[in-house]
Amino acid sequence: MRSRRANRAFAKAEPRVLITRHPRGNPRILAPFLTWLEENVPEARAHLELRVLPFRPGDGYALHVPWLQDPVERWSRRVFDQAMAVTRALRARGVETINPVDRLAHAGKLEGARRMASSGSRTPRGELVAGPIALPPPFFVREDWGHILPGEFEGGGVRFCANEEEAAAFQPTGFVRPVALEYLDV
Q1: 3-state SS string over 114-178?
Q2: Which of 62, 79, 85 has its CA nearest to residue 21?
Q3: Helix (H, G, I), strand (E, B) or coil at 16
Q4: What's the CA gap between 147 and 124, in Å, rounded?
Q5: Residue 92 contacts residue 59 (beta carbons within 8 Å)
Q6: Is a pLDDT exceeding 60 seen at residue 124?
Q7: Higher confidence at residue 153 or residue 123?
């Protein structure tokens, strides 16, 4: 409903930038940006059209931006598929997507480390935790996809194994996609 009202009030210019979102996954995270645009650059805000997934795009778009918590496939395969359907429909019309959802998982800890290491940068080694951890301590265990939330470091979403005993006793309880990452003392 908010998107519909906002579109009537602001999305009046062509070509438009389509911003797709979903009610789940912190849909209002970029609301301060939209408010700032409305107040400071209304002519730019007039080109932004907000839509809630699922959505079938029509014509008149120059660009697509999915505003979804990354990586989408972590929290909803259905929303991932909906966002990709919009991306494919727009690509068929020659409209590109900034940060398409099928690329967001590239920002995961393991994939990010692999890409940084390929540039020659000293990067912590890591592994997905699917059984006993082969990485020698000390190391951190945290979610591969996602970010630290307030309070997670103090025993929630990040665990530190300082020695062999702690590493052997570690259980990935509470993790969805745990990754062990080498601790580099800098």
Answers
A1: HHHHCCCCCCCCEEECCCCCCCCCCEEEEECCCCCCCCCCCCCCEEEECCHHHHHHCCCCCCCCE
A2: 79
A3: strand
A4: 17
A5: no
A6: yes
A7: 123
Is this structure's pTM higher than 0.70?
no
Structure tokens at 145: 């996809």
C-alpha span between 126 and 38 (Å, rounded): 44
Instruction: Indicate the SS3 state at residue 21.
Output: strand
Q: What is the largest CA-CA distance in the chain?
A: 63
Task: Examine residue 124 and say whether the peptide bond preceding it is cis (omega within 30 degrees of 0).
Answer: no
Q: Other CB atoms closer than 10 Å to residue 78's CB: what's the count?
A: 12
pLDDT digits (tens, 9 = 90+) for 24-79: 766 666 778 888 888 998 888 888 998 999 999 988 999 999 988 777 887 789 99
Structure tokens of 59? 């014509």
Sign of the torsion angle spanned by Cα atoms 62, 53, 142, 156: positive
- The C-alpha atoms of residue 24 and residue 79 are separated, in whole angstroms, by 9
Contact between 49 and 80 (Cβ < 8 Å): no
Cβ-in-10-Å burial (0-12, 13-18, 19+) of 169 comes to exposed
